[in-house]
Write a structure and sequence with these properties.
Blueprint (H helix, E strand, L loop, with lengths): L3 E8 L5 H15 L5 E8 L6 E8 L2 H8 L2 H8 L1 H4 L5 E5 L4
Antiparallel strand pairs: 1-3, 1-4, 2-3
Length: about 100
Protein backbone atom coordinates (compact mmCIF):
# COMPACT_ATOMS: atom_id res chain seq x y z
CA UNK A 1 0.00 0.00 0.00
CA UNK A 2 1.23 3.48 -0.87
CA UNK A 3 1.45 6.16 1.75
CA UNK A 4 -0.77 9.20 1.42
CA UNK A 5 1.16 12.46 1.63
CA UNK A 6 -0.54 15.60 2.90
CA UNK A 7 0.73 19.14 2.45
CA UNK A 8 -1.18 21.51 4.73
CA UNK A 9 -0.54 25.25 4.35
CA UNK A 10 -1.65 27.52 7.18
CA UNK A 11 -1.44 31.30 7.39
CA UNK A 12 -1.67 33.27 10.63
CA UNK A 13 -3.62 36.47 11.02
CA UNK A 14 -1.31 39.45 11.48
CA UNK A 15 -0.26 39.59 15.12
CA UNK A 16 -1.20 35.93 15.69
CA UNK A 17 1.99 34.36 14.27
CA UNK A 18 3.43 33.29 17.64
CA UNK A 19 0.08 32.02 18.94
CA UNK A 20 -0.57 29.92 15.84
CA UNK A 21 2.99 28.59 15.85
CA UNK A 22 2.53 27.37 19.44
CA UNK A 23 -0.86 25.82 18.68
CA UNK A 24 0.64 23.92 15.74
CA UNK A 25 3.65 22.77 17.73
CA UNK A 26 1.26 21.46 20.39
CA UNK A 27 -0.36 19.14 17.81
CA UNK A 28 2.86 17.28 17.03
CA UNK A 29 3.30 14.96 20.06
CA UNK A 30 -0.34 13.82 19.91
CA UNK A 31 -0.42 13.33 16.16
CA UNK A 32 2.83 11.40 15.90
CA UNK A 33 1.32 8.74 18.21
CA UNK A 34 -1.83 8.30 16.11
CA UNK A 35 -2.43 5.06 14.19
CA UNK A 36 -1.25 5.36 10.60
CA UNK A 37 0.97 8.39 11.14
CA UNK A 38 4.30 7.89 9.36
CA UNK A 39 5.53 11.46 9.84
CA UNK A 40 4.06 14.81 10.85
CA UNK A 41 6.58 17.59 10.34
CA UNK A 42 5.94 21.30 10.80
CA UNK A 43 7.80 23.90 8.74
CA UNK A 44 7.80 27.70 8.81
CA UNK A 45 8.40 29.90 5.77
CA UNK A 46 11.87 31.41 5.58
CA UNK A 47 10.26 34.53 4.08
CA UNK A 48 7.18 34.92 6.29
CA UNK A 49 7.07 33.78 9.95
CA UNK A 50 3.26 33.61 9.79
CA UNK A 51 3.15 30.94 7.06
CA UNK A 52 3.36 27.31 8.14
CA UNK A 53 3.33 23.99 6.34
CA UNK A 54 2.80 20.48 7.62
CA UNK A 55 4.37 17.69 5.60
CA UNK A 56 2.55 14.53 6.63
CA UNK A 57 2.50 10.90 5.56
CA UNK A 58 -0.28 8.50 6.49
CA UNK A 59 -0.69 4.82 5.75
CA UNK A 60 -4.14 5.49 4.30
CA UNK A 61 -6.97 7.97 3.81
CA UNK A 62 -8.97 6.54 6.71
CA UNK A 63 -6.12 7.32 9.12
CA UNK A 64 -6.02 10.89 7.81
CA UNK A 65 -9.79 11.22 8.19
CA UNK A 66 -9.55 9.88 11.75
CA UNK A 67 -6.77 12.40 12.48
CA UNK A 68 -8.84 15.33 11.23
CA UNK A 69 -11.69 14.34 13.56
CA UNK A 70 -9.57 14.01 16.72
CA UNK A 71 -10.14 16.41 19.63
CA UNK A 72 -6.78 18.20 19.29
CA UNK A 73 -7.63 19.08 15.67
CA UNK A 74 -11.22 20.06 16.33
CA UNK A 75 -10.05 22.29 19.22
CA UNK A 76 -7.73 24.12 16.82
CA UNK A 77 -10.50 24.41 14.24
CA UNK A 78 -12.65 26.10 16.89
CA UNK A 79 -9.98 28.85 17.11
CA UNK A 80 -9.77 29.32 13.34
CA UNK A 81 -11.45 32.73 13.24
CA UNK A 82 -9.04 34.02 15.86
CA UNK A 83 -5.81 32.58 14.43
CA UNK A 84 -6.07 31.96 10.69
CA UNK A 85 -5.92 34.59 7.95
CA UNK A 86 -7.63 32.13 5.59
CA UNK A 87 -8.85 28.54 5.75
CA UNK A 88 -6.04 25.95 5.89
CA UNK A 89 -5.26 24.50 2.47
CA UNK A 90 -4.75 20.73 2.35
CA UNK A 91 -3.55 18.89 -0.75
CA UNK A 92 -3.22 15.11 -1.00
CA UNK A 93 -0.39 13.38 -2.86
CA UNK A 94 0.72 9.85 -3.59
CA UNK A 95 4.17 8.68 -4.60
CA UNK A 96 4.68 7.66 -8.23
CA UNK A 97 8.42 7.23 -8.47
Amino acid sequence: MKNLTVIAVLKAKPGKEAALRQELLNLIPFTRKEPGCVNYDLHVSTENPGHFMFHENWTGKQHLDDHLARPHLTALAAKADELFAEPPRLTLWEPIG
